[in-house]
Design goal:
five-stranded mixed sheet; 10 strands; Nucleotidyltransferase, domain 5
């Protein structure tokens, strides 16, 4: 099949961002995201509100993506959508819309695994960004996932390590809640961490065998530490906030890098790519780049806009699947717990 003039519309609605993107061959023409601010006042995503907001946002977001790309819907070759994993109500909105749109235009429908898409975002044609070579290790870190994946090919991936409880993004958000920070807390902790001393307070790293992760113990340790210190000094958080954030971030990054060191040793693979919302974290990006000098790694960090949930990553997977004529049937359903 020729890859001369292929336009794919990607739709992403797995959580609380409604996104649409148009890709022409391997290059992104538009990448539109509608954020849902309403969840901030609840300190987390409310599934019912998320799905309602998707219903309001999806038509204008798709319209804007086509407009920005400078194409009409009739020029599209296929519609790619997030099938899962994610919040069921949110996924249903994107899935239903994609099925109807593809059916109405009489073009192929392509289902995409959200976690694979975070990894394959590295294959978007983008000036100044290198693409990893197979095989490579991918670390996907987000609010709902923490995984180390051995990537043998575009659609041949093995999860070799994952969290046994909380995801890394959850550890950030719950630590932020303990400290009285807003939601999502990750960016705020990252910002403050750069102003603090990472070794001011020591938190024990959880001991988990192999390549799996655990963050619930760390979260509890942070809670007890803050409670203890605040009893001694009611202004403890206020007086030490930057140092606390720096120490939390230092510990979390240490856990991630330690596991990557084991993974590279076990697999003999030194190419590492990161993806997922938490890969926007400046401390993690720096630690990964430091790994190039310290451990001889070759690291790949995606463009900032492709780290959080976005439709460009769905569109690139759609494009790669289109080339293989790997299409979905109209009776396909969303899957909240879809595995890689």
């Amino acid at each position: 099949m020729t890859s001369q003039n292929i336009y794919i519309l990607g739709i992403e609605s797995s959580c609380d961002d409604t996104a649409a993107s148009v890709i022409h061959n391997g290059s992104i023409l538009s990448n539109v995201v509608a954020n849902q601010k309403i969840h901030e006042e609840y300190g987390g995503v409310v599934p019912e509100l998320a799905s309602r907001a998707h219903q309001q946002n999806i038509v204008p977001v798709v319209h804007q993506a086509l407009e920005k790309a400078g194409i009409t819907k009739e020029q599209l070759n296929a519609i790619a959508f997030t099938r899962g994993p994610g919040l069921m109500g949110s996924l249903l909105v994107g899935t239903s819309f994609a099925k109807s749109f593809a059916y109405g235009l009489n073009i192929p429908l392509i289902d995409v695994n959200h976690m694979q898409a975070h990894i394959l975002a590295h294959f978007i044609d983008e000036d100044g960004f290198e693409k990893p070579e197979f095989p490579f290790l991918a670390m996907t870190i987000s609010g709902g996932h923490t995984q180390i994946v051995k990537v043998n090919n575009y659609f041949d991936m093995d999860v070799i390590g994952e969290t046994i409880d909380d995801a890394v993004g959850e550890a950030y958000d719950k630590s932020g809640k303990i400290l009285g920070l807003g939601y999502p807390a990750g960016p705020e902790i990252d910002k403050r961490a750069q102003l603090g001393n990472p070794k001011a307070f020591k938190f024990t790293k959880p001991k988990v065998d192999g390549l799996d992760f655990s963050f619930s113990g760390l979260k509890t340790a942070i809670l007890y530490f803050i409670q203890r210190e605040s009893m001694k000094n009611p202004d403890f958080i206020k007086e030490n906030l930057n140092d606390i954030c720096a120490s939390i971030q230092y510990t979390i990054i240490g856990i991630l890098i330690d596991k990557l060191k084991v993974a590279t040793k076990q697999t003999g693979i030194n190419q590492i790519a990161i993806g997922g919302g938490v890969s926007a974290n400046s401390g993690i990006r720096k630690a990964l780049k430091d790994g190039e000098q310290k451990f001889g790694w070759k690291t790949y960090v995606p463009k900032f806009e492709f780290t959080t949930d976005n439709a460009a990553m769905i569109a690139i997977v759609g494009y790669l699947k289109y080339l293989e004529e790997d299409f979905a049937e109209q009776d396909i359903t969303a899957s909240a717990r879809l595995k890689i």
